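[Discussion] Sanity-checking designs against the backbone

I'm trying to build intuition for which residues belong where. Below is a structure token string of 228 positions. I'd appreciate it if someone posts a full sequence so I can compare it with mine line by line.
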């Protein structure tokens, strides 16, 4: 039910406004009533969004990113608020989930996984999905903030699966950063040549829009790399 917007928004309001409910969530990191349902809903976002269509298309034929679902953003903000508490992060590192595959949906059983490792694995999946479809800077900033909170409070017992996913995402981000730098240099050289010769064409507007999107994506890449 957390994938229905009203319930995710209600959870966010309770965590932010109700001190007693917030304390309950902070002390129940190991309970199915607190962290696990949020992670399950967020992990299923890729399939839910894919069924509805990940991106629109402009009349010019250029793919237009769409905003992430409101419920997913609300759940990320809930996690951002909870991970700001050192006790919550430390408890997530100490708490073991008997079957991590129940959240991650892996065919290989992941036994006795720290809740913090499952949380990081879900966040990395969301970050990858966001880069590929929505390219939402706010969504990316929320993910980076949660990862930064976990790192600041000393996450421990990182599972091998999560460590492997982290390396994969870092390699992907590094490749994107290098490709983006090369593209920016090529665009700058082309712009200088056109300005000097006065041979600009009608495609300059599309190229400028593409450059703006590239700068936007590069900003997201740098922010995510800093959080890792």
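Best answer:
Here's mine. Compare freely.
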């Amino acid at each position: 039910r957390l994938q229905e917007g009203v319930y995710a928004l209600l959870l966010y309001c309770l965590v932010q406004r109700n001190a007693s409910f917030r304390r309950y969530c902070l002390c129940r990191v190991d309970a199915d009533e607190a962290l696990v349902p949020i992670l399950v809903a967020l992990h299923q976002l890729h399939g839910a969004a894919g069924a509805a269509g990940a991106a629109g298309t402009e009349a010019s034929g250029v793919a237009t990113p769409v905003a992430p679902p409101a419920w997913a953003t609300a759940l990320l903000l809930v996690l951002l608020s909870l991970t700001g508490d050192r006790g919550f992060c430390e408890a997530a590192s100490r708490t073991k989930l008997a079957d991590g595959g129940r959240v991650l949906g892996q065919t290989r059983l992941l036994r006795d996984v720290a809740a913090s490792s499952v949380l990081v694995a879900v966040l990395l999946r969301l970050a990858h999905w966001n880069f590929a479809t929505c390219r939402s800077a706010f969504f990316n900033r929320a993910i980076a903030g949660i990862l930064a909170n976990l790192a600041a409070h000393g996450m421990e017992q990182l599972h091998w699966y999560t460590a492997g996913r982290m390396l994969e995402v870092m390699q992907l981000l590094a490749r994107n950063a290098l490709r983006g730098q090369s593209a920016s240099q090529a665009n700058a050289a082309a712009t200088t040549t056109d300005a000097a010769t006065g041979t600009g064409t009608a495609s300059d507007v599309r190229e400028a829009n593409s450059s703006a999107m590239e700068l936007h994506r590069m900003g997201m890449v740098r922010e995510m790399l800093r959080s890792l």
